[in-house]
Amino acid sequence: PQLLGEELITIIPFIALLTFFSVRCGLSRKVAILGAWIGSAVLFGLLHLPTYQWNLGQVLLIIGTARLVLTVPYLITKNIWSSTIAHVANDWLIFAVVLVAGAAGLKVS
After folding, report:
1. pTM of the entire structure?
2. Cα separation of 74 and 18, whole Å?
3. What distance in Å separates the CA atoms of residue 50 and residue 80, rounded to the nearest whole number?
4. Helix 2-19 vs helix 29-47: angle between axes, to the nearest 10 degrees?
5. Does residue 75 contact residue 37 with C-beta atoms inside 8 Å?
6. Cα angle for residues 68, 14, 49 (degrees, 5° grid)
7. What's the CA gap between 32 and 21, in Å, rounded?
8. N or C: which end of the chain has fewer CB within 10 A?
């Protein structure tokens, strides 16, 4: 449920920014999508500041970039479930890598 919530926290601002850029600013659809895509990723990253000890670089470069990738399924399908499934798969893959590395005796930090 939390990952669906994170998708909603991203997709709702994406749609709002898309509408703002295209309707209010009169930008072309492609430019509006790009602006909304980047803007929603930045917002998502900034929401993670407390989690990552207020490290602005980490939340924008790592979390924000990951958010850009995780929004692509929504952009392609216009279906929030596709981005939610991608988010779940991404997180599970990261957890699996950390668990396997830990089991193999590798230092994971």
Report:
1. 0.85
2. 13
3. 26
4. 140
5. yes
6. 60
7. 5
8. C
HEC per residue, 46-78: HHCCCCCCCCHHHHHHHHHHHHHHHHHHHHHHC
Q: What is the DSSP letter of 109?
A: -
**pLDDT of the residue at 105:** 86
- Burial pattern 77-90, b for ≥16 Cβ within 10 A else e, equals eeebebbbebbeee
Q: Give the model confidence (pLDDT) of 86-106 as tens digits.
A: 999 999 999 999 999 988 888
Residue 35 burial (10 A CB sphere; 0-12, 13-18, 19+): middle
Residues in the chain: 109
CB 68 within 8 A of CB 92: no
Tokens 């990723």 belong to which residue?
A: 41
